Amino acid sequence: MPEEKDDENRGVSCCVLKVASSMTKIRVEGNLIGIMEAQRIMDEVRDMGPMDDEETRAHLIKRTKECNYVPPKAEEAYADALLEEFRKTHVD
Q1: Does some domain include residue 1?
Q2: Which residues lie closer than 8 Å to 7 by C-beta, 6 or more apart?
Q3: Where are any strands of DSSP class E within 13-88?
Q4: Sign of the C-alpha dihedral, residues 79, 27, 47, 70?
Q5: pTM reported for the whole predicted model
Q6: 38, 51, 66, 82: which sits with the fewest CB atoms below 10 Å from its CB?
Q7: What is the pLDDT of residue 80?
Q8: Containing structural domain, residue 44
Q9: Which residues of the chain have pLDDT under 70?
Q10: Is 46:61 a contact under the CB 8 Å cutoff?
Q11: Residue 20 falls within a domain, yes or no?
Q12: Sign of CA dihedral 90, 30, 25, 78
């Protein structure tokens, strides 16, 4: 029998690893929330060119909702948190 390697990822689905690596955690109303594809979303919005905060915020939440569940009652809070994170990482 082949010897098993003691691999830190053994038994973990490659899909789970991919999901974990594409998740960014942001604070929404004090809660730490995982957002799938946040970096890709923010990069795409940045690449759209200069726009005001409201337009940036609208694009961020729209794209985020395409691959993440955003509770309707918390949409404004998510949009605020996404804009704040965008400013930290994508504004010179």
Answers
A1: no
A2: none
A3: 23-28, 31-36
A4: negative
A5: 0.77
A6: 66
A7: 98
A8: 14-90
A9: 1-21, 92
A10: no
A11: yes
A12: negative
